[in-house]
Amino acid sequence: MMPTTQRRLLFGMLALLSAASVVLAAAVGSVNLGWETWWQALTDPGSEYGELVWRLRLPRAAAAWTVGALLSLSGCLMQVLLRNPLADPYILGVSGGASFAALLGMTAGLSATALPGLAWAGALASIVLVFSLSRGEGPWSGTRLLLTGVVTASGWAALISLLLTLGPDGSLRGMLFWLIGDLSYTSLPGWAVALLVLVFAVCMGMARSLNVLAMGETTARLLGEPTRKVLWGVYLLASVLTAAAVSIAGNIGFVGLIVPHLMRLIVGSDHRVLFPAAALFGGLFLVLSDTLARTVLAPRQLPVGVVTALLGVPLFLLLLNRARVRQ
Asked: CB 65: neighbour CB atoms within 10 A?
């Protein structure tokens, strides 16, 4: 475990960088504001650019940070759950159910305000389906859960393809942006912040148990850990985090895969340090990615999922190469 001084320094640096990324996101975009203009807009919401900063850029940056933290925590939990560093928040079909329900609403012509609720309903339906089919009567089986989740995700993917094929041309662009991951019309709901704080507190309370579980299920049982209950709790927490992120911004890839990997290399595998480090860096990473998505081809905006993929693929290959060299 990292020394206390180094840990505090790391958390402080990540917190400062997160705040700086939000400031940067509020200052740049298709309309670039000088620092003097930005400061005037920040201190006077009624000024010429005050509405741009307070009603568009800051809420979007806050939503990006929250979604990044949600996905990073979910990725940490999924990798513990499946004991696989390649596991990500979307592997067990939760995002597929959320996406199908949201796209179904788009096909039916429902308003954008109804989409988060539909996404939550689809995600919860997928959670119940995977949980019911994989729990069984015998001992816990991560393999059975993984196979059930993968098959369920494939089923949702087939239904999504059917919707894209049969859906109206007018809504096809919005549907594709949702599937890729987009923050263009996103605002930060208060329940998402409350959920992030609550689940983070629960995760920190479970950190010691997860550290023991990482030594193997047999060892954990010998040390008195209720492994089956802990693992099902981890699954439910990871699913809820994923459902929240997808309901806000669609499917944003690589954040929940790359961030836990990178933070584990820096801080180690102690979840008491890994959880806060991953949450802070995940939020920072997604805010910077969304800022790039808004500015790189301004005034046109890219889906943020495109940027996270373009950044995530080479970084992931670099991490894999480093792991191979260390072996």
From this structure: 26
What's CA 95's distance to the chain center, in Å?
Answer: 11
Distance CA 95, CA 246 (A): 6
Rounded to 10 degrees, the C-alpha dihedral 165/242/290/62 comes to 130
At 187, which amino acid appears?
S
pLDDT at res. 74: 94
From 191, 183, 201, select the one nearest 246 (Cα to Cα): 183
- Cβ-based burial of 133 (10 A; exposed 0-12, middle 13-18, buried ≥19): middle
Domain that holds residue 122: 4-326
265 close to 259: Cβ distance less than 8 angstroms: no
The rounded distance, in Å, linking the Cα atoms of 54 and 42 is: 7
Q: Is the pTM of this model over 0.85?
A: yes
Helices 115-134, 94-107: axis angle to 10 degrees equals 140
Number of domains in the chain: 1
Domain holding 218: CATH number?
1.10.3470.10
Residue 300, φ and ψ in degrees, nearest 5: -75, 150
Please tell me what DSSP assigns to residue 17: H
The pLDDT tens digits for 112-151 are 778 788 888 888 889 888 888 877 666 667 778 888 888 9
C-alpha distances in Å from residue 197, one per residue of 70, 207, 265: 10, 15, 25
Query: Which contacts qualify for 315-318: CB closer than 8 Å, 24 or more apart?
Result: 315/258, 315/262, 316/254, 316/257, 316/258, 316/261
